[in-house]
Design a protein that fits this description.
This protein is mainly beta and 186 residues long. The protein has one domain: Lipocalin. 15% of the residues lie in helices and 58% in strands. A ten-stranded antiparallel β-barrel has the order 1-2-3-4-5-6-7-8-9-10. Strand 3 (64-73) and strand 4 form a beta hairpin. It is globular.
């Protein structure tokens, strides 16, 4: 499996339940989110625009994914909503690894470039290094409708947080053309 197959298999509506361990505080926090993941073609305007923003030739992009979230965390009364576009650019010498560029996400104040590794075990690892932090996230499918995710966030000098998420597919979004065809045949 390559990263774009992973994105395509991830397309749809998901319910995510997260448990985060804040190691500095020795406390655990739960959270819930609704996710929408859409696979994007390499010529999608959002993919092209993001490549141009990073001064990367859009022809080198493999495609992309748009992730939208709406969730809550126990300690925080507010809603956490947003979206980001992810665009993988393969390393020519290592086809299952490469750069992952993205728009601002939940924690970023500016666009961030990271790395991805698509493992032989079909798990996707995303690595992002910030000025003062390191983030590593591993995602894999336990079944077609159950995705699991672990992550660590490490401040330079020690671990800050470890999280585990289970994500259950709640539905697959059909392209507009399929919806129209179905409505016309009814």
């Amino acid at each position: 499996m390559d990263i774009m197959e992973f994105f395509q298999l991830s397309a749809g509506k998901w319910f995510s339940q997260r448990t985060s361990h804040h190691l500095a505080f020795k406390q655990t926090e739960g959270g819930k989110s609704d996710l929408q993941i859409d696979s994007l073609a390499k010529d999608d305007p959002a993919v092209v625009q993001l490549c141009e923003q990073y001064n990367i030739d859009p022809a080198s992009a493999l495609g992309g994914a748009r992730v939208t979230w709406d969730g809550t965390m126990e300690w925080d009364e507010g809603k956490h909503t947003g979206s980001t576009v992810l665009v993988p650019v393969a390393d020519p010498d290592k086809p299952n690894e490469g750069k992952l560029i993205r728009e601002m996400g939940y924690a970023e104040k500016a666009p961030v470039a990271g790395r991805y590794i698509m493992g032989a075990d079909q798990a996707l690892t995303l690595i992002t290094e910030y000025e003062t932090m390191y983030s590593e996230e591993r995602l894999w499918f336990a079944s077609p409708n159950l995705r699991l995710r672990t992550s660590i966030l490490k401040r330079f000098g020690g671990f800050s947080m470890a999280s585990f998420c289970s994500e259950i597919r709640m539905g697959v979004t059909k392209p507009a053309a399929d919806t129209t065809a179905t409505a016309q045949s009814s």
